[in-house]
Specification:
The protein has 206 residues and is mostly beta strands. The chain is 12% helix and 37% strand. The chain has a domain at 6-61 and 122-199.
C-alpha cells in the first residue's frame, strides 16, 4: 500500500507497470446500437456516431462513493449514493428513473450485485486480483477482461488484445471514463461504470 494511491488501496501493486501496452490512439469503428438503459441518445446518422463514449464522475460528496455520473451528452445519467442499510454501508447506483442498477455492500468481504445481470458475489471474485498484484481480471460473456494500471490511468484490455477498450483518468475534480464502442458491444458499459467506482473507492476490495 502506498499512501492514498487509489490503485494501491484497491489492491494494485504500484511500481512501474510491467505490461506492454500499445500506445497508438485507441477507438473502434464499430457502430453502437441503442443503449441498454435507453438513456444514451445517439444521433440519427450512423456516420456521426462517436467511437468513444465519455462519462464523467462529478459532484463528489466527499468522494466517488457519493457522486453524479453524467453521460456523453453531459446529462445526469446515474447517481452514486452510499448509506447504511441494516448497519452495513451500501453504495447504490441509481438510474434517473429511480431504479437501482447495482449495489455494493461494504462488509468485511465486500459484495457486488447488478440488477438482472450479476447475482450478488464477492467483489474480489468478480474483479480478481492477479497473483503478482499487477492487474485485476474478470470474465465477461466468456471473455477475460484485464484492468491494468498505466501511469495515472486504468485501462481495460480483452485478454490477448493490444488496444485499450476502456480508459479511466482521475483529475482533481472529476473522474473520466472513456469507453470504446467495441467495449459497449462486448457488454462493458455497466461493468466499467461500477468498476470505476470500486477502483477509486479507497477501500479494500478483497
Amino acid at each position: 500500500m502506498h499512501g492514498t494511491n487509489p490503485y494501491a488501496q484497491a489492491g494494485w501493486y504500484n511500481p512501474q507497470n510491467p505490461h506492454t501496452i500499445n500506445t497508438q490512439p485507441w477507438g473502434s469503428s464499430a457502430i453502437a446500437g441503442p443503449s441498454i438503459f435507453g438513456a444514451l441518445p445517439y444521433p440519427p446518422s450512423q456516420s456521426s456516431l462517436p467511437t468513444v463514449l465519455t462519462f464523467h464522475y462529478v459532484c463528489f460528496n466527499p468522494d466517488v462513493l457519493n457522486c453524479m455520473i453524467t453521460g456523453p451528452t453531459s446529462i445526469p445519467y446515474l447517481e452514486v449514493a452510499t448509506g447504511a442499510q441494516n448497519g452495513v454501508p451500501v453504495t447504490v447506483f441509481r438510474k434517473s428513473d429511480g431504479r437501482v442498477l447495482a449495489s455494493v455492500e461494504w462488509t468485511r468481504s465486500p459484495t457486488v450485485e447488478v440488477s438482472g445481470r450479476l447475482a450478488k458475489q464477492p467483489v474480489g471474485q468478480w474483479l480478481r486480483l492477479s497473483a503478482d498484484r499487477g492487474h485485476r481480471a474478470m470474465i465477461l460473456n466468456g471473455r477475460e477482461v484485464m484492468w491494468v494500471q498505466r501511469q495515472t490511468n486504468i485501462c481495460a484490455f480483452s485478454s490477448g488484445g493490444k488496444d485499450a477498450l476502456v480508459n479511466i483518468h482521475r483529475g482533481p475534480q472529476a473522474i473520466t471514463l472513456e469507453l470504446t464502442t467495441e467495449a459497449f458491444h462486448l457488454g462493458l458499459l455497466e461493468t466499467s461504470i461500477i468498476a470505476t467506482v470500486l477502483l477509486h473507492s479507497g477501500r479494500s476490495l478483497d
